[in-house]
Amino acid sequence: MPTMPHGYTNRTTGDGRVVVKSYRGPGAALRCAREAEVLTALAGRLPVPPVLAQRDSRLDLAFLPGVPGQELVDSGRAEEVLGACGLMLRRIHAVSPGTAGITGPHDDAAVLVHGDYGPNNTLLDPAGREVTGIVDWEWAHAGDPVEDLAWCEWIVRMHHPGHAGSLNAFFDAYGRRPPWAGRHQVMVGRCQALLAMCERWRPAGDAVRLWQRRIQITESWTA
User: Fold this and answer.
1) Contact between residue 183 and residue 164 where contact means Cβ atoms under 8 Å apart
2) 0.85 exceeded by the pTM?
3) For every residue of 175-194, which 3-state class applies, written as one string?
4) What is the enclosing helix (H) or strand (E) of 216?
5) CA-derived radius of gyration, the chain
6) How far apart are the first and last CA of the chain?
7) What are the tens digits of pLDDT across the range 25-80?
């Protein structure tokens, strides 16, 4: 199967019918199991890919139609895409973590957190107005809504800086914009966690230097 674009940590291949996700790095098997559990629990409730098979650190998923959100953002549809992402995130956060395959104790105020939410992990119709799929649930957990809100903002600021002004459409559609200090703290903390993962996996690899640089950039941002 040909390798699919936009992959980062893991290797994803597809043939237009089946998508095969091979997890890599620390905790690969656990992340694979988490995604399979969440996708199975969310089937029919949110536009997520059906699980066809799971074994060790490999997940076979049914192909979902749609255009990757980051491609639509770069083509000039940032307002539409981020508005659609905000509406979809409201739906995600309305799901009880316990009914989404998230086990273990958590605060009563916790919501289902995607963990890597943004246009990078959404598929949309060609006009960018409706989300047709939400992928990459390996970091899903019960937590604070600000985690997904801040990380979507980080994705846009880091990878689509020319469209950062369109984040207003994202927050307006979601219906809430947490204070900057809290959002910024979440962005930096998440970057630090990903740096730590890379240091455990490949201490001398390029990814370590990449995340060190991204932390510096993120720390320099202002509201």
Assistant:
1) no
2) yes
3) CCCCCHHHHHHHHHHHHHHH
4) helix 206-220
5) 17
6) 43
7) 899 999 999 999 999 999 999 999 999 999 989 999 999 999 999 999 999 999 99
